[in-house]
Design brief:
Blueprint: H1 4-11, E1 15-16, E2 36-38, E3 46-48, E4 60-75, E5 78-92, E6 98-111, H2 118-127, E7 130-133, H3 142-169, E8 177-181, H4 188-192, E9 196-200, H5 210-217, E10 223-225, E11 228-230, E12 240-245, E13 258-263, H6 267-271, H7 273-282, H8 299-310
Parallel strand pairs: 4-8, 6-7, 8-9
Antiparallel strand pairs: 1-4, 2-11, 3-10, 4-5, 5-6, 9-13, 12-13
Helix pairs in contact: 1-2
Length: about 325
């Protein structure tokens, strides 16, 4: 969509803004203890997988999404945010080349209409831009409203990824796998599919405590934990999961090179957890540099992100510039 809706609200009296808040991409997981039930073992154990024969699917589809946003104006003290979300599936066949199989994108405006003057409300309505409304309790303080806008955009991104992933399942071949950057448990279809894997890089949710938590977070490189079942939280579906260390953490950080894997909750998943883990170890190469998250970012997922960012409208994020006052000199 052209940037005309931004021009329209500025013409209608919005005060222009160009500051891009500090908003690192990625899911904001819940920072709470949820617990887990042992599946493979009663107590959490570790297994070496580096020398295990890996699963070797001939064709794999990789799904990821991005979000970009910034405040483009204010109506009084209410921010008006321009957001952009996109997702893509890139498929890798026997020739090892990644090709785009599906993609989707969406531009949105995020604000609270009731807090804006009538000319601004009319300009937004006439522009036709998709509008995400902030709740009444999230406006008043600009800082709080900006964080609420970030959460709304994240929900829009996750919904787009989920929709694209579920659509991709119908096109999977009989031996093809889908690897998702993020959880499967938000989707009934993804959770139930026997050849879908979720690879989670963030570790806000805590499933263990005490010695088991220490065992999970000090996992050696090339090792996985035993398979467990996270206790269900809200509307999330039953799933099996385990931790896997891609790179040595010693000398770095406890979470360095640590990912959590989600897969279909059945006995077959437990039987091939080591082979799946050995496959994911191979997916580390080539390195996903210069991305700062390269230690937890599979190269093919990095490729999807790179593809999406290359197709992002250039004016979504304002170019960096000085915030020093204009003195006229």
């Amino acid at each position: 969509m052209p940037r005309s809706w931004v021009d329209a609200i500025l013409a209608a009296g919005a005060v222009p803004a160009s500051y891009v808040p500090d908003a690192s991409a990625g899911r904001t997981d819940l920072e709470e203890f949820t617990g887990a039930d042992g599946v493979e073992d009663v107590a959490l154990r570790t297994y070496a997988v580096a020398d295990t024969r890996p699963l070797a699917p001939g064709t794999v589809a990789f799904l990821d999404g991005i979000e970009q946003w910034r405040v483009v104006g204010y109506g009084g003290v209410t921010p008006i945010v321009r957001g952009y979300v996109a997702a893509a599936v890139r498929r890798r066949g026997p020739d090892r080349r990644l090709r785009t199989a599906a993609e989707a994108s969406r531009e949105v405006a995020i604000t609270r209409l009731e807090s804006l003057a009538e000319p601004l409300r009319r300009a937004l309505a006439a522009s036709g831009v998709d509008l995400l409304e902030l709740a009444e309790e999230d406006v008043g303080q600009p800082g709080r409203a900006i964080q609420a806008a970030r959460r709304e955009l994240e929900r829009a991104r996750l919904a787009q990824e989920r929709e694209l992933g579920e659509r991709c399942l119908a096109a999977l071949g009989p031996d093809e796998w889908l690897v998702v950057d993020g959880v499967l448990s938000d989707s009934a279809a993804l959770s139930a599919h026997p050849r879908a894997l979720g690879v989670i890089k963030s570790h806000g949710a805590q499933y263990f405590e005490g010695p088991e938590l220490e065992r999970a977070l000090t996992l050696p490189a090339g090792h996985r934990t035993s398979v467990f079942q996270p206790k269900r939280r809200g509307a999330r579906r039953a799933i099996y999961s385990w931790y896997l260390r891609l790179w040595p953490w010693e000398g770095n950080d406890l979470l360095y090179g640590l990912v959590r894997v989600e897969a279909h909750a059945d006995a077959v998943t437990v039987a091939r957890a080591s082979a799946l883990s050995a496959w994911l170890l191979r997916e580390r190469s080539p390195l996903s540099t210069p991305d700062a998250r390269w230690d937890r970012l599979l190269y093919a997922i990095h490729d999807v992100e790179t593809y999406l960012r290359s197709r992002t409208p250039r004016d979504v994020i304002a170019p960096p510039g000085s915030r020093l006052p204009r003195t006229g000199s």
